[in-house]
Design a protein that fits this description.
The complex is a heterodimer of chains A (about 200) and B (about 350). Chain A is α+β, with helices and mostly antiparallel strands and about 200 residues long. Chain A has helices spanning about 1-30, 50-55, 65, 100-105, 140-145, 175-180, and strands spanning about 75, 85-90, 125, 155, 165, 185-190. Chain B is mainly alpha-helical and about 350 residues long. Helix content of chain B is about 50%, strand content about 5%. Chain B has helices spanning about 15-45, 55-65, 75, 95-105, 110-115, 120-130, 130-135, 140-155, 170-185, 195-205, 215-225, 230-235, 240-245, 265-270, 290-295, and strands at about 80, 85-90, 90-95, 255, 300-305. A 3-stranded antiparallel β-sheet of chain B has the order 1-2-3. Chain B has a two-stranded antiparallel sheet with strand order 4-5. The chains are: A alpha+beta (about 200), B mainly alpha (about 350).
Chain lengths: ~200, ~350
């Protein structure tokens, strides 16, 4: 008799707990985990460098995007699991102008105000096997012209004035990726620990 | 007793209209602000001539709306930004207490600049109870309209679900949400909290071209309210409602029944979206001070008072039982007044 009562109570308890967890399961189901290419998912400037800590800190309020003048901040909307509703910058669509409004408006620790040259979204990497001046397919210089940080971040090669060379002052804003005229985008933003010259792919 | 005249035209009766205005204003702002944001990006780009015809129309409309307010839209319109989840109001950052708590649980570190932004809402909740649920929450507007839809469905012969559960279920939802947030390291409560979802989804739809996962979730909660329980999500599942119920348990501002004026017509119980029992002084921590019961009471027996406790059940109203001399018993009770 007692055991039956205990079992019934246990079952009811599990049922209630399941009902309580249902909304979260549903939300997770609607935004399944997905693996995105890292170079198309830069965090906005001033983001916590550890992405796990960034996701912990971000409440998904969207203020950074609302304040962004070039509207370069987008959100993982229907995928990402715990990553859902967190902001990212896809430089292939639109790069960041480093205006700093998102860092100022973010209520949480996720984006904190930093000096312009202390921002770390990544670093640009150039594939010298595709970039027009590097393969002698004409003059370009779009990336070096648009760069908001000037010759601290990207400069021309000494020997050939139109071949771009990324320097370590680059903060990875991605404007160069946005303006690059080459269809395969030989310039891309990678993690800071990586090389600024793409390993040669044949 | 017979000569006691019910107090007519008390101001509290009109608070419900004020509440609807407040809900509509908040919702309208949530729709307007994403357009303002998009307009600002057009202004910042200095390229009116390169906009498509529809973008030009948006630009023109927003310019017409905002030009009386400011000459420098790119800067000055930053004054009001955000949603009810977290917003920026003339330099004052305000955050939903649930966002602060959820973020605290997810990161397990205290970041005071953020937690302090939730202080004003917390203090207001301690004084006014679940006022956010009744007066501000953009989802409340949608859910109350959904409740009206239930009545229309009922008239059409369909039977919307009217189940009742234990309202304490939402405390479990809040607890599980915080535990899951701590375990997974992401602010999960934000993904199941309708006001946060609505603010976010409107921004996504307007500025980023397309709804996210939250829109589907919101649609499902509307179906739940329609098919299973009236205002079921707010009553039984909403983690934010749970938090405000806890914070507002000893709120100062309460609805109170004056038993001498009550005629036991039960209109208040019928209109109460949260299924409470105003006719027998049953308000408790769930009451969101929405004042719908005050507005519908035909004898003005319900008013706001300042007290940290409800009265215990005062029994049947003195105007009921035999002394049915009021004009109200001649007309049948309306099903619902919006």
């Amino acid at each position: 008799m007692r055991r039956r009562g205990f079992l019934a109570r246990g079952t009811a308890g599990i049922g209630v707990a399941a009902a309580g967890a249902l909304p979260y399961g549903l939300a997770r189901l609607l935004a399944p985990a997905a693996q995105a290419e890292p170079q198309s998912r830069l965090r906005p400037p001033g983001a916590l460098s550890d992405d796990t800590a960034f996701i912990e800190a971000c409440i998904g309020c969207g203020l950074c995007a609302e304040a962004c003048p070039p509207r370069c901040i987008a959100f993982t909307k229907r995928e990402g699991g715990g990553d859902v509703n967190t902001p990212y910058v896809d430089p292939r669509i639109r790069g960041c102008t480093l205006c700093g409004k998102c860092m100022e408006i973010c209520p949480t620790e996720a984006l904190t105000v930093r000096r312009r040259d202390a921002i770390d979204m990544g670093i640009a990497q150039i594939d010298r096997a595709a970039c027009y001046p590097w393969v002698d397919k004409g003059v370009c210089g779009a990336c070096a012209t648009i760069c908001p940080l000037g010759d601290k971040a990207i400069d021309f090669d000494f020997a050939n004035l139109y071949r771009p060379v990324v320097k370590h002052g680059c903060v990875g804003c991605g404007l160069c990726v946005e303006v690059c005229p080459h269809p395969s985008l030989p310039i891309r933003i990678v993690e800071r620990s990586k090389e600024t010259v793409a390993p040669h792919r044949v | 007793m017979e000569s006691r005249k019910p107090r007519r035209h008390s101001i509290a009766r009109h608070l419900n209209k004020l509440r609807w205005i407040s809900l509509c204003v908040v919702f309208a702002m949530l729709v307007l602000l994403p357009f303002v944001s998009v307009y600002q990006t057009y202004v910042a780009s200095h390229a009116y001539d390169l906009l498509s015809p529809s973008e030009k129309r948006l630009y023109d409309v927003m310019e017409a709306l905002t030009s009386p307010l400011t000459d420098e839209p790119a800067e000055a319109l930053d004054a009001i930004k955000g949603t009810t989840w977290s917003g920026n109001f003339f330099g004052l950052k305000l955050t939903d207490p649930l966002a602060a708590l959820g973020q605290l649980a997810a990161s397990l570190t205290v970041y005071w600049p953020f937690l302090l932004t939730a202080m004003i809402p917390i203090v207001l909740t301690v004084v006014f109870g679940r006022f956010f649920c009744g007066w501000i929450c953009p989802a409340t507007l949608v859910y109350e309209l959904n409740s009206s839809l239930r009545i229309l469905l009922g008239r059409a012969g369909l039977r919307p679900g009217g189940r009742r559960f234990d309202p304490r279920l939402k405390f479990l939802v809040l607890g599980i949400g915080l535990a899951l947030s701590a375990a997974t390291g992401s602010v999960l409560v934000g993904a199941v909290y309708p006001p946060a979802i609505i603010g976010r989804e409107i921004y996504y739809a307007v500025a980023l071209g397309g709804f996210g996962a939250g829109a589907v979730f919101l649609a499902l909660t509307l179906l739940f309210d329609l098919l299973v329980a009236r205002r079921g999500f707010c009553r039984y599942l909403c983690p934010g409602g749970a938090l405000y119920a806890l914070l507002g348990r000893y709120r100062l501002i309460r609805v109170r029944r004056t038993v001498e004026d009550c005629n036991d017509c039960a209109k208040c119980n019928g209109i109460c979206e949260f299924g409470l029992n105003p006719m027998r002084d049953g308000f408790g921590q769930e009451c969101n001070n929405c004042s719908a019961c005050i507005a519908i009471c035909p004898t003005d027996a319900l008013t706001f008072t300042v007290n940290i406790r409800d009265l215990s059940d005062q029994g049947p109203g003195h105007l009921g039982r035999g002394s049915r001399s009021l004009a109200t018993d001649a007309e049948p009770a309306p099903e619902r007044a919006a």
